[in-house]
Amino acid sequence: MKIETYAAIDIGSNAIRLLINNVDKSLRHPDFKKVAYIRVPIRLGADVFTSGMISEEKKGLVLEAMMGFRHLMNAYKVKSYKACATSAMRDAGNGREIVKTIKKDSNIDIEIITGREEANMIFEAGGLDAMMDKNRNYLYVDVGGGSTELVLYGDQHKITSRSFQLGTVRLLSGKVVKSELENFEEWLEEIYRNHAPLSIIGSGGNINKIHKLVGKREGEHLTYTETKILYDVLRNMTYEERILNYKLNPYRADVIIPALRIFLMIAKICKTNEIYVPKLGLVDGLIHHLYQEQIRSKK
């Protein structure tokens, strides 16, 4: 048995995540097992989408989180790691300066990636092909705090992809540009015209929570009707009522509404009643990407 430990860090617009996996390389197909997962609800997008900068307070919190992640990776004897930042850090006027400070204080290298790179990384986590019927087309949708990534698949292969500046925190902040929303809808209409019928594969913390709130078991898909009913119920509650009645964490109780809105918009335009939820995220994709990089470097 040959086990190595890898880690991935995702600095998003709504939260920062660390995933540590043990990878058993002695098997014919490597086995990835989660040994630690931490989500820190630091909402960088709330600063960036309103002022264009990450505040000194949020900067300090990010640095604390990164130093903590460094200690954890050392304690788990992580062989290799990959850290990426997405929409909020991309848009922040001081994003690159903060990345340099993180490197100096915690010795963690962070790569600021594009929306398209983010979507590709998530796909590398694997597992999506297992739920894809070769006779259907699928629209993979990852709803983040700052952006929504969409990838169209046919015959289990990528056909096209787009990233839109349309995310949950951006919507909550009222900072979605009207033209971006129009472009989003026009792109979806074109995808439907050329590639229907479609099913949706949803990714992100909010759709995972929605899947759980509706009472679905692993492998069961959500329907448009179920998702719409949940949306109507939740949006007619106050923030406090969502926390009390649905046991939602404070960091989830507000963003779940715009997340539902985005998924429902996509399902309505694409005239689909099926949303599959594989429970994969950027950190999963980063670890698989890192593992493949290690394999290629040894050839």
Structure in words:
With 299 residues, this protein is α/β, with parallel strands linked by helices. It is built from 13 helices and 11 strands. It has helices spanning 44-51, 56-75, 87-91, 95-106, 115-123, 168-172, 178-195, 205-213, 224-235, 239-246, 250-253, 256-269, 282-297, and strands spanning 3-11, 16-24, 31-40, 80-85, 111-112, 137-143, 148-154, 157-164, 198-203, 222-223, 274-276. It has a 6-stranded mixed beta sheet. Strands 3-2-1-4-5 form a 5-stranded mixed beta sheet, with helices on both faces. Helix 8 crosses helix 12. The protein is globular and about 45 Å long.
Give a short summary of the structure.
With 299 residues, the chain is α/β, with parallel strands linked by helices. The chain has helices at 44-51, 56-75, 87-91, 95-106, 115-123, 168-172, 178-195, 205-213, 224-235, 239-246, 250-253, 256-269, 282-297; strands at residues 3-11, 16-24, 31-40, 80-85, 111-112, 137-143, 148-154, 157-164, 198-203, 222-223, 274-276.
Structure characteristics:
alpha/beta; 13 helices; 11 strands; five-stranded mixed beta sheet; 299 residues
Number of strands: 11
What gyration radius follows from the Cα positions, in whole Å? Answer: 19 Å
Indicate the structural class: alpha/beta
Give the end-to-end Cα distance, rounded to a whole number of Å: 21 Å
- Name the assembly state: single chain
**H/E element sequence:** EEEHHEHHEHEEEHHEHEHHHHEH
Map the helices and strands.
Blueprint: E1 3-11, E2 16-24, E3 31-40, H1 44-51, H2 56-75, E4 80-85, H3 87-91, H4 95-106, E5 111-112, H5 115-123, E6 137-143, E7 148-154, E8 157-164, H6 168-172, H7 178-195, E9 198-203, H8 205-213, E10 222-223, H9 224-235, H10 239-246, H11 250-253, H12 256-269, E11 274-276, H13 282-297
Parallel strand pairs: 1-4, 4-5, 6-9, 9-11
Antiparallel strand pairs: 1-2, 2-3, 6-7, 7-8, 10-11
